[in-house]
Specification:
21 strands, 2 domains, alpha/beta, Lyase, Ornithine Decarboxylase, Chain A, domain 1, TIM Barrel
Length: 429
Amino acid sequence: MRHFDYNAGEMFAEEVPLAQIAAEVGTPVYVYSTATFTRHYRVFADSFADTKALIAYSVKANSNIAVLATLAAQGAGADVVSGGELKRALAAGIPAEKIVFSGVGKTRREMHQALTADIHVFNVESLAELRVLNEVALALGKMAPIAFRVNPDVTAGGHAKISTGKKENKFGIAWSQAEDAYAEAARLPGIRIVGVDVHIGSQISDLAPFEKAILKVSGLIKRLRAAGHTITSFDIGGGLGIPYGNNAAVPPPPSEYAALVKRLTRDLDVEMIFEPGRMIAGNSGVLLSEVLYVKRGEDRDFLIIDAAMNDLLRPALYDAYHDIEPVRQGDLDQMETYDVVGPICESGDTFTKGREMPKLESGDLVVLHSAGAYGAAQASQYNTRPLVPEVLVNGAEYAVIRSRPTVEDILKTESFPDWLTKHENVTDI
């Protein structure tokens, strides 16, 4: 079910008109649907209801604490990649025993923070990290539960920048070194081996790469157990894609993914850990923007909107596709072709080229769909453009869950050194 849809020619988020949010909050603004977040989590979690599974939502996809609290109420855990994300997850009510700490560059401070909180497991990505984690754990009088993230050299993902399971990627322990790594971990007094972790990429649209990776890791688990290691969990990461609407391959539903995973792992007797992010958050949000100008060029027309690449980086970073629709349903008999661009002074500030859309004019509102994941989380204040606010809709009501800072708020985070405060043209911020 789509929770961003037209009602009497006007687009709503659940029961709230998007035009109302634009008028009261301003644009650009991210708008999220509670019903979509809840439905997507439940569809995934219910597919594994008959197995021992931890659904650790990937916080990096959308880290707003209201979003995390919404998922926590459904029973979600969290996959975090920084101390900041850990603090967010705990603040949102996600229990530490449901938190997985991933990432290639954990600091000593972050390790200390996670050990003190008693998280579920560390996904360790190098021997250097393992040795530091051992030192931090011993200093605290603790043992760190770990799973090595192993790199199975499996190609997956919709773009080179989101493929993570190939041998040339920075992630994980090389497949050829995995068993030696576990042997070293077993010798360290501050380390407790509990599992194996793998994550092969993002926006994966077919099940074949998952099957290949699961079969390889299943064999590794059996060899590790034969070598005397206790392996009680298998973290398969995330990566299941979502439909973006550009006639690309439609990813399989979670039910088919679950059937594959259960068939391939039913004899392993392990807790399965999953780290879905985009699959839950992607289609739970839109970026709402206003048309500033329609610029007629020599060989193309530009639709200049008030959202920019600092608000939604994905098209510039990944060549990502987003469906774009007018908030007021357009006349399909009056279609025009636009390059949809933002106001930033870079050619990369382009959301799409040659997109056919209903005719639009200055002041019209548009939505960029499928923007709930890696949208606000990647936003910046480039060009001193304040961070885009976020709104969460729940039925017929909504709340601003991140406010838009003023330029004065931004400037307050900066200061003049003493030698510049004496300059006659310097003014107080």
